[in-house]
Every structure is written in structure tokens, then in C-alpha cells.
């Protein structure tokens, strides 16, 4: 099949296209309408059809694959390695579902999952799907106030957590964080189901904590039937950062997501039943939801779940995993490859990588030197793909399962089938000419698998995503891009105040809010600047209440450390700025808006351009001075 025809058909005739694709999953009750367009910008897929994500990911494979590994778990933090066949996974998911049910979890209710990378996280997600409960996984690196904010938004009936996580050999106690979040949250659930890994030296014993292990024993042989959900019932909420300090709950459906992931496995990832996929990400991010948990299992593959870093015990660990587990497909973020590039090349060469067919990279721009290095080192196709939490699966990629078009360095490729992707002029909303920079937009309807709405806030969904391109009712990705004559798109960064640090999406406003909570701070601006390894790094420019507060280098250092600790406590260490600069004032417009793009330009040593609305141009000079002093 030619890519061009395939793509054209998918957007010209989505009903027929997706009706065919829907045959990839089991429908307990067939749908009676492929696409309901009656209420744009909302789209409802496979209306009236009843299905279940857990059934499709687990039960459906039992007749043919009960003894095939479904989940291989490797932790280089604890030294634990476990293998679960589809039969084992089925049993564990039933146990977890039975335990959740015994704690009162019902269809349509939310379960918040705050877990490190352990198999129980997969069981918990699939158990929710089985019960028809809506899971909301919160990345384990988020601090208590962030967790509390997500609890209050999702109002879960149960929280699932663990005694501790581990990263780089350091144990991170979870129970004090959970305890603080439970105390802060207005809608704290009555119970926290605790997976005790026996890692935390001192575990909290709050009355709401319920140990999983004894309950698992009690429910060892209980079978929990799958709830047959209408295709458009919500399957999960996943919070992501935007321009405001309040994270958005991206809500996804059941049937559309299942169909979209199953199709992507063939057309984009070329994954087949029986293959092994290693996605090195975290279940707290969308890549983890889609390509650690759901997609490989929907496709009858083996998924490898890894707890640890790419460089511990040494930089060869991932390549040894490929060899040991005969991994066929691998998926990670460019940052990890930039980290591995600094390691001894012998570590890569000495592993037997013959099983590996393709490496997929996503989550942040893939720079050309990294792409060239890894392609040459592996001698296998490296497929960059562009998407976001909201879409759930790639928007741009070379879809090798459709047609293996050539790669162009610096571009993630061409629009994926299902997406009517158009670059538009930010002022006029009109489609861009070839080579003209524009906002990457998607026309209505979004294909299956994409977000349905913002949890509990349809108006925010419409306003944020569908009303930001002038005069055009189109979905904005908030990314800049440029398209060439062959349809290849290159990503040129975000149009909003979101930054991307090591593939993690962070709102600069969230970091600013955390820093502002420090008593010494009068004002702060956080911007992202280029970073050789992490893609971007967050820099904070802080105006102190007491101008002399950071007069000496020692004072400045102490204060910067104290601000970093505040970010760790408020948001989590992932939000910690790489550097803090103290400045007498921040550049603003006369109406008081921060000139962030100008600050970012200065921080990268670029010309901030004309700023006719600036209130006091000397503020620019203080940013320049702070940056050059910091660099010296
Ligand atoms: P997230 O929602 O955390 O997955 O972050 C999505 C954002 O990451 C996108 O809106 C882009 O800004 C960026 N991004 C994701 N994949 C790529 C890619 N392959 N190339 C460039 N930027 C990317």
C-alpha cells in the first residue's frame, strides 16, 4: 500500500477506514455508528459498541498465548526480575481487581495510581479497566502538593501506592508523600492500597493504609468478570501540563483507544503477536500507558518493564536486556540516547543485538547528531515519532508498516493516517505555504484514541484546544512546525510556555508557582533553554523581596539551594531549575506581562528582537548580566 493513498483515504473517509480497523479488537456488542459528529469539536467513536480494554489486552489471548510471556519485569534498582505469562497476568489482574472490588471500587469511579515501576502498576491499571473504573496514574516523581491537586480533580475512591520507589540506587519513601497529599487533599479517598516492597526503612502506618499482600492472598482464586463498557465511556485520566498552573486531566475513551493502539502497532511499529517490545519510559507518562501497557498487550506481544536508569550498573544495561530477552522493538526518548552516547561504545558493540529490528524515539526533538550516531551504532532503522499526551499515539512518523518511506534527518516524518494535520499561520489561521513556519493543527474530527475532553471541564477542552487558532475551529498542538514539499514536518518548539526537559513536559507556570511560594521571592520567571543532554533545561530568574538577600555569592548559593528544595517539595525534583539567577527586575510589557520569549532568547545568547511594548528596557540588561555572570 502506498502511504499517500492510505493517508488520503483515512481522512477523506474516516468511517470506512476505522470501521475496518475496529475489527482488530473484540466487541462484545457491535457498534451501530462508527463516528458521531453531531457535537463538534467532540467526536464519539464506535457508538453503541461494548468492549473492555482488559479483556482485549489479556483474556482474549488466553486460548493461543496462555504460556507466552506477557510481561517481563527487570529492576536494576532491586535486582528483581520476574516473568508473567498471559495466564499469570490474567490471574494477577483478577486478584487485583477482586481486591479493588472488595474495597468498594465500581464502574465509572476513579482510582488514582501513584506507583513506581513495578508489575503491580500494570496489574492495577488493567484491574481498573476490567472493573470499568477510571484510572489516573500520577508519575511517582511528583511531590505531595501535585499529588493532592490531582486527587482533588479526579476525586478517586481509592489510591494505590507503594512503600517506596528507587532511582539511581536511592530509595524514595512514598508513604510520607502520600500522607501529606492525603492531608492536603479535600477529596482524600478513604483508603490507600499499599504495595509493600519492603524498601522503605521506616514505613508509615496511617489508619487509611491497607496492605495489598494479605488481601491478594484472600482473593487468590477469585475471578472478576470484565465490565462491558460502551466505547465512549472513559478509560483513564492522565494529567499533563499546559500554560496555566493547573494541570489538565486528559480523558480517553475505551473503544477508540483500543482500536487506535492496535492499528498503530502494525502500521507504525510493525509489531506482531509474539514479538517483544521494550519501552523505556514510565507508566506515569502517556508513552507508558500506550506502549508499555496497552498496545503491546492488545497485540499479543511481550512487554518489558524496566525500573532503573540506562547507566546503572553501567551504560550497557539496555543493550544486554535486548540480548537476554531477544527484544525486537525498543522505544525511548532521545535524552536517553544522548546519555548513552557518552558511554563506552564497546558496551553497545559487545551485546548481541540481532533480535532488534527498530528503535523508536519520541517525546522531544531528535537532534541530527544523536540520530546519526544511534543509526550508525545500531545499524537498524531509527524511527522518530511525534505526538503528545492528548493524542495517545503518533501524529507524525515514517509509517513503515504502510510504506517504508525514507527518513529525513531532523524530521519525525509525515502525518500519520487518521490525522488531518495542517500547518497554519498563527495570525490568519490560513494553511501555511511550503516552508513557512506555522502552528501544527489537526482538523475535526480527531481520530480514535485521542483525548475526548478535559476531565470534568468540557469548556476548557473547547477553549484551550479548539479556539486558539484565529478563525479556525481546529485543534492546536501548541507546537511550531514547518512542512516540506514531500510532506515531511520538522518541529520547531512549543508555541506556549511549556518546556520539555529530558522528554518530560513541564509548565513553566507550575515551576514559577512553586518558586513563588518561597518567602524570599517577590517575582520569578522560568524559561527553557537548550541543553546538550536534556534537550531543554529550566532556568529561573528571581527577584527577591529583599534586594540584598543574595548579595554575596555564598548567600546566593544558599538561597538557590533553598529554592530548589522548595520546588522539590511543591512539584517534585523533575521541576527543579538547572540554574537560578537573581535579578533586580524582570522584563515586562507595560501591561505587566512577562516577556518570556525575550528572557529565553537572552538566556541562550540570542537577540530578543524588537520589543516595542517593554516597560523598562534596562531589565534586559540585568538578564544579560545575570546569565553571563552565571556562565563565568
Ligand atoms: P507529552 O505530552 O509529554 O508527550 O509532550 C508532548 C510534546 O513533546 C509535544 O507537544 C512536542 O512539543 C514534544 N514532542 C513529542 N515528540 C516529539 C518529537 N518526536 N519531536 C519533537 N518534539 C516532540
TrEMBL record:
EC no. given is: 6.2.1.17
Q: Where is the Acetyl-coenzyme A synthetase N-terminal domain?
A: 3-57
A Pfam family that the UniProt record links to this protein: ACAS_N
> Which residue numbers delimit the AMP-dependent synthetase/ligase domain?
66-444
InterPro entries, A to Z: ACAS_N (IPR032387), AMP-bd_C (IPR025110), AMP-bd_C_sf (IPR045851), AMP-binding_CS (IPR020845), AMP-dep_synth/lig_dom (IPR000873), ANL_N_sf (IPR042099), Propion_PrpE (IPR012694)
Which family is annotated? Answer: Belongs to the ATP-dependent AMP-binding enzyme family.
Q: Which GO terms describe its molecular function?
A: propionate-CoA ligase activity
Protein name according to UniProt: Propionyl-CoA synthetase
Limits of the AMP-binding enzyme C-terminal domain? 510-593
Q: Which PROSITE patterns match?
A: AMP_BINDING
Q: Which PANTHER family match?
A: ACYL-COA SYNTHETASE (PTHR43347), ACYL-COA SYNTHETASE SHORT-CHAIN FAMILY MEMBER 3, MITOCHONDRIAL (PTHR43347:SF3)
Q: What is the lineage of its organism?
A: Bacteria, Pseudomonadati, Pseudomonadota, Betaproteobacteria, Burkholderiales
Superkingdom in the source lineage: Bacteria
Keywords, ordered alphabetically: Ligase, Membrane, Transmembrane, Transmembrane helix
NCBIfam families (UniProt xref): PRK00174.1, PRK10524.1, propion_prpE
Amino acid at each position: 500500500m502506498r502511504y499517500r493513498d492510505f493517508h488520503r483515504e483515512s481522512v477523506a473517509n474516516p468511517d470506512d477506514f476505522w470501521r475496518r480497523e475496529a475489527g482488530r479488537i473484540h466487541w462484545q456488542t457491535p457498534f451501530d455508528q462508527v463516528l458521531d459528529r453531531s457535537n463538534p469539536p467532540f467526536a464519539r467513536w464506535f457508538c453503541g459498541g461494548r468492549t473492555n480494554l482488559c479483556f482485549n489486552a489479556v483474556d482474549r489471548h488466553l486460548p493461543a498465548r496462555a504460556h507466552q510471556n506477557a510481561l517481563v519485569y527487570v529492576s536494576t534498582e532491586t535486582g528483581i526480575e520476574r516473568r508473567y505469562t498471559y495466564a499469570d497476568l490474567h490471574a494477577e489482574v483478577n486478584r487485583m481487581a477482586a481486591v479493588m472490588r472488595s474495597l468498594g471500587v465500581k464502574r465509572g469511579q476513579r482510582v488514582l495510581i501513584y506507583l513506581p515501576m513495578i508489575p503491580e502498576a500494570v496489574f492495577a491499571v488493567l484491574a481498573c479497566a476490567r472493573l470499568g473504573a477510571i484510572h489516573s496514574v500520577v508519575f511517582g516523581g511528583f511531590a505531595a502538593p501535585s499529588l493532592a491537586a490531582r486527587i482533588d480533580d479526579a476525586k478517586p475512591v481509592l489510591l494505590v501506592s507503594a512503600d517506596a520507589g528507587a532511582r539511581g540506587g536511592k530509595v524514595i519513601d512514598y508513604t510520607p508523600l502520600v500522607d501529606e497529599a492525603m492531608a492536603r487533599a479535600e477529596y482524600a479517598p478513604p483508603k490507600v492500597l499499599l504495595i509493600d516492597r519492603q524498601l522503605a526503612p521506616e514505613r508509615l502506618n496511617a489508619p487509611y493504609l491497607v496492605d495489598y499482600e494479605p488481601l491478594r492472598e484472600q482473593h487468590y482464586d477469585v475471578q472478576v468478570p470484565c465490565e462491558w463498557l460502551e466505547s465512549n465511556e472513559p478509560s483513564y485520566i492522565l494529567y499533563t501540563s499546559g500554560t496555566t498552573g493547573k494541570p489538565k486531566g486528559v480523558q480517553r475513551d475505551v473503544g477508540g483507544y483500543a482500536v487506535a493502539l492496535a492499528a498503530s502497532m502494525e502500521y507504525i511499529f510493525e509489531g506482531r503477536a509474539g514479538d517483544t517490545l521494550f519501552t523505556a519510559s514510565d507508566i506515569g507518562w502517556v508513552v507508558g500507558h500506550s506502549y508499555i501497557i496497552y498496545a503491546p498487550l492488545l497485540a499479543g506481544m511481550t512487554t518489558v518493564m524496566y525500573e532503573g536508569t540506562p547507566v546503572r550498573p553501567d551504560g550497557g544495561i539496555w543493550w544486554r536486556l535486548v540480548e537476554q530477552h531477544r527484544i525486537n522493538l525498543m522505544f525511548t526518548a532521545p535524552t536517553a540516547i544522548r546519555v548513552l552516547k557518552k558511554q563506552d561504545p564497546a558496551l553497545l558493540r559487545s551485546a548481541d543485538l540481532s533480535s532488534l529490528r527498530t528503535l523508536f524515539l519520541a517525546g522531544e526533538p531528535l537532534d541530527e547528531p544523536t540520530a546519526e550516531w544511534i543509526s550508525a551504532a545500531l545499524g537498524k532503522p531509527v524511527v522518530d515519532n511525534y505526538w503528545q499526551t492528548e493524542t495517545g499515539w503518533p501524529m507524525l512518523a515514517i509509517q513503515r508498516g504502510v510504506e517504508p518511506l525514507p527518513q529525513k534527518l531532523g524530521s519525525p516524518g509525515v502525518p500519520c493516517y487518521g490525522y488531518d494535520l495542517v500547518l497554519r499561520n498563527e495570525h490568519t489561521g490560513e494553511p501555511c505555504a511550503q516552508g513557512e513556519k506555522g502552528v501544527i493543527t489537526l482538523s475535526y474530527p480527531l481520530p480514535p484514541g485521542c483525548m475526548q475532553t478535559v476531565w470534568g471541564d468540557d469548556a476548557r477542552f473547547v477553549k484551550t484546544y479548539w479556539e486558539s487558532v484565529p478563525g479556525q475551529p481546529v485543534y492546536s498542538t501548541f507546537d511550531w512546525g514547518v512542512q516540506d514539499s514531500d510532506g515531511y514536518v520538522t518541529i520547531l518548539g512549543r508555541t506556549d510556555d511549556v518546556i520539555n526537559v529530558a522528554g518530560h513536559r513541564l509548565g513553566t507556570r507550575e515551576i514559577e508557582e512553586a518558586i513563588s511560594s518561597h518567602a524570599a521571592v517577590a517575582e520569578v520567571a522560568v524559561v527553557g533553554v537548550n541543553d546538550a543532554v536534556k534537550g531543554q533545561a529550566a532556568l529561573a530568574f528571581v527577584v527577591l523581596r529583599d534586594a540584598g538577600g543574595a548579595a554575596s555569592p555564598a548567600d546566593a548559593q544558599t538561597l538557590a539551594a533553598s529554592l530548589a528544595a522548595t520546588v522539590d517539595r511543591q512539584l517534585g525534583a523533575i521541576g527543579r531549575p538547572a540554574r537560578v539567577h537573581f535579578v533586580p527586575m524582570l522584563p515586562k510589557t507595560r501591561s505587566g506581562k512577562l516577556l518570556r520569549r525575550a528572557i529565553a532568547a537572552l538566556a541562550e545568547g540570542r537577540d530578543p528582537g524588537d520589543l516595542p511594548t517593554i516597560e523598562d528596557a534596562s531589565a534586559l540588561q540585568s538578564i544579560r548580566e545575570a546569565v553571563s555572570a552565571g556562565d563565568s
